[in-house]
Amino acid sequence: xxxxxxxxxxEVLFGKDRENEIANEIIKFGYKKVLLHYxxxxxxxxxxxxxxxxxxxxxxxxxxxxxxxxxxxRLSLVNKGIRFCKENDVNFILAVGGxxxxxxxxxxxxxxxxxxxxxxxxxxxxxxxACLPIGCILTIAAxxxxxxxxSVITNDKNNTKRGCxxxxxxxxxxxLDPKLTMTLTQFETSCGCCDILMHTMERYFVxxxxxxxTDAIAEGLMRTxxxxxxxxxxxxxxxxxxAEIMWCGSLSHNDLTGLGVSKxxxxxxKLEHELSAKYDVTHGAGLTALWSSWAKYVYKDxxxxxxxxxxxxxxxxxxxxxxxxxxxxxxxxxxxxxIMNMPVNLHELGxxxxxxxxxxxxxxxxxxxxxxxxxxxxxxxxxxxxxxxxANK
Amino acid sequence: xxxxxxxxxxEVLFGKDRENEIANEIIKFGYKKVLLHYxxxxxxxxxxxxxxxxxxxxxxxxxxxxxxxxxxxRLSLVNKGIRFCKENDVNFILAVGGxxxxxxxxxxxxxxxxxxxxxxxxxxxxxxxACLPIGCILTIAAxxxxxxxxSVITNDKNNTKRGCxxxxxxxxxxxLDPKLTMTLTQFETSCGCCDILMHTMERYFVxxxxxxxTDAIAEGLMRTxxxxxxxxxxxxxxxxxxAEIMWCGSLSHNDLTGLGVSKxxxxxxKLEHELSAKYDVTHGAGLTALWSSWAKYVYKDxxxxxxxxxxxxxxxxxxxxxxxxxxxxxxxxxxxxxIMNMPVNLHELGxxxxxxxxxxxxxxxxxxxxxxxxxxxxxxxxxxxxxxxxANK
Lengths: 393, 393
Description:
- The structure is a homodimer.
- By secondary structure, chain A is of the alpha/beta class.
- Chain A folds into 2 domains: 11-180, Rossmann fold (3-Layer(aba) Sandwich), CATH 3.40.50.1970; 185-391, Dehydroquinate synthase-like, alpha domain.
- Chain A has 15 helices and 8 strands.
- Chain A has helices at 22-28, 42-45, 48-58, 75-88, 99-113, 119-122, 186-204, 212-234, 239-252, 267-279, 283-298, 303-314, 322-339, 355-368, 381-391, and strands at residues 4-14, 34-38, 63-66, 92-97, 134-138, 150-155, 160-165, 173-176.
- In chain A, the strands form 2 sheets. The first copy, chain A, has a 6-stranded parallel beta sheet, sandwiched between helices.
- In chain A, α7 (186-204) packs antiparallel against α8.
- Chain A is globular and about 65 Å long.
- Chain A binds chain B through residues 1-9, 11-16, 18, 211-213, 216-217, 219-221, 223-224, 227-228, 240, 243-244, 247-248, 251, 259-260, and chain B through 1-9, 11-16, 18, 211-213, 216-217, 219-221, 223-224, 227-228, 240, 243-244, 247-248, 251, 259-260.
- β1 of chain A pairs antiparallel with β1 (4-14) of chain B, so a sheet runs across the interface.
């Protein structure tokens, strides 16, 4: 196995009504003024935003507000937020929402505490050296941004979607109340479940060194996500299932499920980022629309892991050879996506792309990855195009 | 499932030769003077202490030394360390050793930063409100103290062994190099492996609420520990197996394997603390000597968990009833302890106790636990005595 660093300093407050403890958490970390950062509709409609404001008001915590974060959060709002925080002497950000709001908060936090253009960090020109302290109240289990070191921002001037990773942006605290996810639509819930599953799959399908305890945790997490995601299709208000998914969401992206692995994969995510940057599709749906094309294209180069996955995650037993077992595992994932009512190709995602569109996607993906991606199989621009094409059949 | 807080801020640097990075880690956290805290023989004989001193000297890091920590670390040395740190203006502790050294460092850290007698925190009279920053270089995988909020100190004046839990003592960093555990004896290694297994078992055998993802992680961890512990009996220098055990050691006691559980058990640990406080036995060996008596005494009150354990950890399949499956699971653990050459009763532990001795142990245990312990089955003093007696047959 490979050497690794594990660093997850975020304090997680998990369970029913934990958002009521928000004032103490903010006060604990010291603040002058808080930026209350959120999205568009759901936190307003659900009444959550009003409840949080009431708690802040009652506790005498000063704050200013910036709403309007969109899915695939935009650089333009980030820049607005940076100016707004500086003008208002903000020194703590409270993100109320999902991964988009948290990622937007991270980018604002970078911009306030580092000189120069925040865009540089997402264009890989410089690395941030600080971030404002951030806490969150999570309203969708999906991206895992609440415990991760990453944020992904879309530059709305040139339609590029890029990530920046650093430990400075790791949240001080994350409030995870599964009840808050009950107002989500079925599609939103399913997108989140599939994104969570993918965060571990991207770490699992690798060539090179691995670690037994990491595999055991990853397989256990994937089984738990699959089982409870299906429960939520039938009974969306099942608190226990929402809680399992929510905690899996954080664990799936806080590094735990990839420790000791020499090189994780992330091809499906990179291929998807180009889709959502260009066509603004929902990230989780973009992932499921691409995954099977990726899997069928690469599995022969990563056969032992696909076999292990099929057996240990789906319990597939077969008298056939490894290839048969691997393909049954891939088919089981596709069946799962279908049960979740998720798209399994680009047409089902609602896109009608020409060959020229696909060529452009592959080219953009290749540029953003310096020419190649992947661990299960190293993919160059030609491979990327093949995967996009197969997803478009 | 129950609400929970998960907070593991310790930065873990895991893998070969990571101790060479010690200077940067200490400098990162700021220091005036470091207390280099260690045990008796092994870190000196292995040459590790000399290597660390060379690194500190070369980096210009000022330090003072306090060695001599014994297994079941003593309050007398803790008090000496507190005075020594104050005299020398120490503001960072580097623990080089195992759980005893780390626990001793935590107690010293409390004593330096809080007024009054540090003993109060271990007699449950007061709670600490601060701790010196601590880092460690771990030399045995066992107690999990490197990522836990707990420390256990033996008062050598009255032979009581008591724990103190608080987030203040959580380490700033933990350097985990599996190679450093290769100089351990087989007995030391086996004691560590069994302690690690027990840290998850104490969280697993419970009545009340549980969580699927927690169970999946716990079961995966127990399978991994059992498999790799057996590997180390045959091939003690197997790096991969030592690495699996070492990382499992940290995960087993950083709360991850008990999240969402309403009330964890800890009976075997509490019963053992009385043994090691009075007779100075090795903690891991004390645990294996008591566990089967505990398990056979309580399993009927916690049957679903014992059945789940037997099936998911040992793969036991049976056409018999739940009780048969549960007993097969218990037998499998006993077999495992035997393969590890660990004692499975008090005689094999080297003790010859009279009925009066057992009565005293049960009484002390009951006092230290305010009358009762346990989740699998709530045990009072009479129950504790029965378990000690069964272990003494």
